[in-house]
Amino acid sequence: MDDETRYEAVSSRDARFDGEFFFAVVTTGIYCRPSCPAVTPKRVNVRFFPSAAAAQAAGFRACRRCRPDAVPGSAEWNVRADLVGRAMRFIGDGVVDREGVAGLAQRLGYSARQVQRQLTAELGAGPVALARARRAHTARVLLQTTALPVTELAFAAGFASIRQFNDTMREIYAGTPSELRAAAVGGRGGGTTARPRPRPAPGGGPAGGGIPLRLAYRGPYAAAEIFDFLAERAVPGVEEVRGGPGPRTYRRTLRLTYGSGIAEVEEPPTGPRGRPRPPAGRVCPAARGGDGGWLECRLLLTDLRDLSTAVQRLRRLFDLDADPYAVAERLGADPLLGPLVAERPGLRSPGAADPEEMAVRIVLGGPPERAAELVRAYGKPLDAADGGLTHLFPAPAELTGADVPEPVRALCTALADGTVLLDAGADRIAAERALAALPGVGPRTAAYIRMRALGDPDVGGPDRGEPADGERGPDPDGADGPEGAWRPWGAYALHHLWRAGLLPPGELPAPTTAALAG
To answer: What is the predicted pLDDT for the residue at 177?
Structure first.
């Protein structure tokens, strides 16, 4: 895409490109998302940036009207398996905040200089600037949704000092933290009225009412299908789905870096054509100029430093950074899939809130109650049960010596000693090969783990990086199409086939398929 095409997207306020690029106006000093509702600036005054961090580094402030820092992430980082794609997934998971650039480089297997050079070349900003943009967004959310003292809030967002926090907020948002909080209370934040800010519970426990958030997505979103998918696989004690179809709430416990948490995500109401729509009186900025919206979420955390990591994990679970337009364009041209894509626009490929948990559940197999027995026997109980949520799913190290099937024990040992890595930026090809080599796992189960636990949309297509033995199943009904017509969206193709009954739910095409749980 060249700059003239980008300017056409800005002129038409095309929300399909929110998060794919940003534009800045030199006469005002602000940067925006493509769908910003403000008057379109003259072309001569517009500059384009591949990331919010690049716009900030160039001295531009975030638009208070369209909130460009709150757009869905680029779907490109879900697809790409190169250094930049893996680095972006690691940065989103908070690795730079916790381990610094050196830790990021070590995880990637490159020097810090190489990482800096490649990120700057593609995104206009290095890992420090990208992580800074992430911290600033987290701080703004906390300012506008909690009553935390500013000092606590700054460190919870990942800032090293109060001075750094104040300087960053002024630079990016053109206001002090107090002014940003006052604007939220006065209902001036982005055209919507801020909800009441819950007060944190004493003793470091989760906030009394949790932190309310809106998890934005682009394009149509098949919410009913993804809530059905999660409800059918919910593990009692760790997950639950409340309510009937329509107003359901998905709830689960989270094991996080600094503590634990409970997440609640609401199924959005549907419009006349069955698509999610924002509540009456509210217009999601992502919806201007096209489909889009958000999922209402509430997080109760024992340590607020885990906020941004928890948000990223939920985004992966609900596949909120997907590009349904690109998926529909690719799969819609397939004779088999075209009618299915038209019937269910915005069908997503759910990921995992905890990749290691998901891998254990898949290898364990069976109905959710089988995993629930594992949770009751080895999971860490919550200090106080919350509805049907009673435990954290056991970590792999807690299962290496447990009375579990041998394939599960082998997997947990490999996860605990680092033989298999399933973190956010893991090398997906290497992970799949290592998984397939474990006793009792095999290539098809490894591929399914790659799809769910690592959120890889490119599962099922040819030449995508198969396990070492190169085994691939046949292409049923031309599934992969000539020259890989489904790539890189094979995971979405599988979900369409499952929903249509052309493949049994949870099964992958293979000479001898085996049911996959999780």
So the answer is: 92
Q: What is the pLDDT of residue 517?
A: 52
- Convert the pLDDT of each residue in 176-197 to its tens digit: 999 988 887 654 333 333 344 4
Provide the residue count of the chain. Answer: 518
Question: Which residue, 441, 507, 436, is CA-closest to 476?
Answer: 507
Pairwise CA distance, residues 222 & 219, whole Å: 10
- The DSSP code sequence of 270-321 is B-TTS-B-PPTT---GGGTTSSEEEEEEEEEESSGGGHHHHHHHHHHHTTTT
CB 217 within 8 A of CB 230: no
d(CA 107, CA 82): 13
Phi, psi (rounded to 5 degrees) for 218:
-105, 150
Tokens of 186: 């006065």
Looking at residue 120, its amino acid is T
In the prediction, which pLDDT does 218 show?
Answer: 87
Phi first, then psi: what are they for 154, rounded to 5°? -60, -45
Residue 513 near residue 443, CB atoms below 8 Å: no
> Considering the chain, what is the average pLDDT of its residues?
85
Q: What is the pTM of this model?
A: 0.83
Residue type, 361: R
Sheet holding 249-255, edge to edge: 211-218, 292-301, 260-266, 249-255, 239-242
Q: What are phi and psi of 488, to 5 degrees?
A: -100, 35
- The yes-or-no verdict on residue 284 having pLDDT over 50 is no
DSSP symbols for 70-105: GSPPPTHHHH--SHHHHHHHHHHTTHHHHHHHHHHH
Contacts with 331 (C-beta within 8 Å, 6 or more apart), sequence order: 337, 338, 341, 486, 489, 492, 493, 496
Residue 429 φ then ψ, to 5°: -65, -45
For position 483, what pLDDT does the model report?
A: 38
- Tell the burial category of 100 from Cβ atoms under 10 Å away from its Cβ (0-12, 13-18, 19+): middle
**DSSP β-ladder status, 260-266 and 292-301:** antiparallel
- Look up residue 225 and give its two tokens: 């299908």
pLDDT at 246: 75
Longest dimension (CA), the chain: 68
CA atoms lying within 13 Å on the CB side of residue 21: 20
Residue 159 token pair: 């800032």
Q: Which run of H or E residues covers position 485?
A: none
The answer to whether the CB of 159 falls within 8 A of the CB of 135 is: yes
In angstroms, rounded to a whole number, what is the distance separating the alpha carbons of residues 299 and 364? 29
Specify the higher pLDDT residue, 210 or 362.
362
Q: What is the pLDDT of residues 243-254, one digit of tens each?
A: 987 789 999 999
